[in-house]
Amino acid sequence: MSTAPISNVATPAHDAPVVRIQNLNKWYDKFHALKDISLDVRSGERIVICGPSGSGKSTLIRCINQLEVHQQGTLEVLGETLDDNRQRLQRIRRSVGMCFQHFNLFPHLSVLKNCTLPQTANLGIAQADAIEHALSLLDRVQMREHANKYPGQLSGGQQQRIAIARALCMRPKVMLFDEPTSALDPEMIAEVLEVMVDLAKEGMTMLCVTHEMGFARRVADRVVFMDRGEIVEEAPPRQFFDAPRSPRTQQFLTQILDHGVSNA
After folding, report:
1. CA-CA distance, 202 to 11, in Å (whole number)?
2. Statement: residue 5 has pLDDT above 60
3. Residue 258, CA atoms < 13 Å, CB-side half-sphere
4. Burial class (CB in 10 A: 0-12, 13-18, 19+), 90
C-alpha cells in the first residue's frame, strides 16, 4: 500500500482534544448503558476500546457522531458540542468517518459509485474530482481493480476495505471503527487490520472497538477496557497487557487470550 499522507490529517497536536467526553450517560428505557464516561482523545491518538459483549463499547463510539444520542453529560468533537443542532451535527459527521461491522455499502451501486456518492452529495465535490480521489483511495486499499464491481461480488474482507476507502473519501479528521473484523472469516481479518495499521502510521486519529488484542498491542496509544457501561481501566498497551490493575481487566484478558481471540 502507498504510504502517502492523508491530505487533511493535521500533524498531531497535544493541546485541545479532538474528542472530549465528560460524564456521559446513556439509557435505553431503564437500562443504564453508559455510566459517567469521561475520555479525551487528542489529534493523532489511536484508542482501542475493548470489553465483553454488552459493556457499552459500540454505544460509546456511536454517540460520537450521534448514531446514538446521550441523555446526560457533554460530548465535544473538533471543538463543537454535540446537541440537537442539526447543522452542527452535519458538520461534525462530515469530519468523522465510521466503519461498521457489516460494511453498510450500497448493494445496488458499484464500488466506485459507493466511494464517489458521499463526496458529491455531502461535500459538493465535482464528479471528476470525486472519481480521482476515490480511485486513489481504492489504490491505497488495493481494491482499484474492483472499482466497477458490486459489493455482492466481493469477499467480506474486500467489502470492509472498500468501506474504509469510502469513509476516507470524506477526508475525515477522526475515524471510528465498530468491530470492523468481527463479521469476517479469520483469513480475511489480517488484510483489513493491515489497512488500519497503515492509517495509524499516517497519524489518523482513531477510536476502534475490537477484540483484536494483537492489533491493540501494535497500534494503540491507549487501551480502554469497559464493563457494564463503565470505563474500568485505561492504560498504554504495555501496562494494560503486562500489568493490568483491575481484577476485572485481568479476568477479561485471561479469558480472551486463552481462547485465541488475539491476532498479531
Report:
1. 10
2. no
3. 6
4. exposed
What is the distance between the alpha carbons of residues 210 and 219, in angstroms, rounded to a whole number? 12
Q: How many Å apart are CA 186 and CA 99, to the nearest integer?
A: 18
DSSP string across 191-208: HHHHHHHHHHHTT-EEEE
Backbone torsions φ then ψ of 73, nearest 5 degrees: 95, 180
Q: For the segment 205-264, what is each residue's pLDDT rounded down to a tens digit?
A: 999 999 899 999 999 999 999 999 999 999 999 999 999 999 999 999 998 876 554 443
State phi, psi for 146 to the nearest 5 degrees: -105, 15
pLDDT tens, 106-157?
999 999 999 999 999 988 999 999 999 999 999 999 999 999 999 999 999 9
Alpha carbons 51 and 234: distance in angstroms, whole number: 12
Q: Are strands 222-227 and 46-50 parallel, antiparallel or unpaired?
A: parallel
What residue spans of 108-183 are helical by DSSP H? 111-122, 127-140, 156-169
Question: What's the rounded Cα separation, in Å, for the pair 112 and 116?
Answer: 6
Angle at 258 between CA 254 and CA 263, to 5 degrees: 105
